[in-house]
Amino acid sequence: MMTIKLDGKKLAEKVKTRLIQRIADLKSKGIKPKLVVILVGGDEASKIYVRNKHRTAQKLGIETQDIRLQRTVKESELLTLIKTLNADDSVHGILVQLPLPEQIDAKGVINAIKPEKDVDGFNPQNVGSLFLNDPHSLPCTPAGILQFFEEYHLPVCGKHVVIVGRSNIVGRPMAAIMLNHDATVTITHSKTKNLRKLTRQADILIVAIGKAEFITGEDIKPGAIVIDVGMNRNENGKLVGDVEHSSVNERASYLTPVPGGVGPMTIAMLMEQTVNFAERSADFDGKNVFNS
Ligand SMILES: Nc1nc(=O)c2c([nH]1)NC[C@@H]1CN(c3ccc(C(=O)N[C@@H](CCC(=O)O)C(=O)O)cc3)C=[N+]21
Q1: Is there a contact between 214 and 234 (Cβ–Cβ < 8 Å)?
Q2: Is 53 considered catalytic here?
Q3: Is 89 a catalytic residue?
Q4: How confident is the model over 85-101, as pLDDT tens digits?
Q5: Residue with CA at minimum distance from ligand 1 atom 19
Q6: Structural domains of the chain, with CATH
Q7: 165 a known binding residue?
Q8: What distances in angstroms separate CA 159 from CA 137, 152, 167, one per listed residue?
Q9: Rounded mean pLDDT of 261-270?
Q10: pLDDT single digits (tens) 203-217
Q11: What is the C-alpha to C-alpha distance for residues 260 and 137, in angstroms, rounded to an integer?
Q12: Is 246 annotated as a binding residue?
């Protein structure tokens, strides 16, 4: 079987192109979309993310401010900073890069971000709205994955979607989004018994478990759509996904590459969401933008 590559780089360009006019319209109203990224310490995936985010935002004319804090920063300092940004009308989106160092309670920090500025859609209010199929913002990685299905006209309704991984960033919100699109959803994770028996039943397999080349050709149904969310460095320093592409290729019908698949889409959706928020602030004068 010929496997079709789901080209995230190309699709991200398309998403960004459709933002250009919207950003120009905002600027004509005197609004410059602004995203603030808070980075504490920083792991490998986070560094790639920050670099690519910055580059993309600059190209689009979205203002970004990176606030880098030391690994030893106090939680109270972080909370004070978020409060200041919540109150700053020039800031439309706030993103706290995860993971946070151990001494910081990530839940408390995410709770502190005003839901209207929560570009990642991680705040419990936004998570709840998504689960109730009334989303205000979508976590960027799952939102980016959804774009592939729309762009390539791949039906989701009635399909069996199996998700490997239950993180707050990818697995859980992805499940909610697919359910909202009438898929039948199975979430698997590190404690799942006979996990590979389940992955072989998937029409659509979404892998976000953070283990290099965890899923191989034998673990998928021939003709399945496979989305690889993984971003791992192998022993040679090369970026590899959670899927073994050598064996999944020619067995899947569609497959996202790593790099050039889900990663660029995550960034494109972050930009889109920042623009969405800036527009809402413009339309509703910064008042309650979600209930109208
Ligand atoms: N609050 C929060 N939200 C996140 O969404 C989040 C986070 N924290 N922490 C870190 C991870 C990681 N992440 C990436 C997104 C895109 C690329 C990306 O652009 N990858 C490209 C480039 C690869 C390269 O340059 O080598 C690609 O896959 O083609 C990478 C990593 C978002 N994350």
Answers
A1: no
A2: yes
A3: no
A4: 999 999 999 999 998 99
A5: 263
A6: 30-114 (3.40.50.10860), 140-263 (3.40.50.720)
A7: yes
A8: 24, 16, 22
A9: 97
A10: 999 999 999 999 999
A11: 24
A12: no
